[in-house]
UniProtKB/TrEMBL annotation:
Origin: domain of life: Bacteria
Keywords tagged on the record: Metal-binding
KW Plastid (keyword) present: no
GO MF annotations, alphabetized: metal ion binding; methylmalonyl-CoA epimerase activity
Keyword Metal-binding attributed: yes
Database matches in InterPro entries: Glyas_Bleomycin-R_OHBP_Dase, MeMalonyl-CoA_epimerase, MMCE/EMCE_epimerase, VOC_core
Family: Belongs to the methylmalonyl-CoA epimerase family.
Name of the protein in its database record: Methylmalonyl-CoA epimerase
GO biological process, one term: L-methylmalonyl-CoA metabolic process
Organism field: Daejeonella lutea
Domain named VOC: residues: 3-131
Amino acid sequence: MDKIEHIGIAVKDLSYSSDLYTRLLGYKRYKTEEVGSENVITEFFKIGNSKIELLQALSGESAIAKFIEKRGEGIHHIAFAVDNIVDEMARLKEQGFQLLSEQPRKGADNKLVCFVHPKTTSGVLVELCQEIEEINI
């Protein structure tokens, strides 16, 4: 794992939380993105080489809505940048970690992602992120 890529924060009201983090950090978000596969809308703020990701559920069935219902708003996950997500997934499985998917999938902010179950990481949901490289043809 290369670095902390971002910290994901589950929020009920993205507009309110975006304003709050804009005031807290002193600058505006750099990106808003809907992730249909996760049923969320996200906003990203840069902080040095890391990011904060705010996540709002688009329906009551999303993982974010269920998280907020159970635990309230707050830190949802910590994401680590990796060079090769497939190799990192294999390494973690070999080490006994439980992955939430067998294959990486497209996530927000031009990333391939995979989550590691929190029951195998002392209660913390861990996300692996690999930048999707665009191929110019």
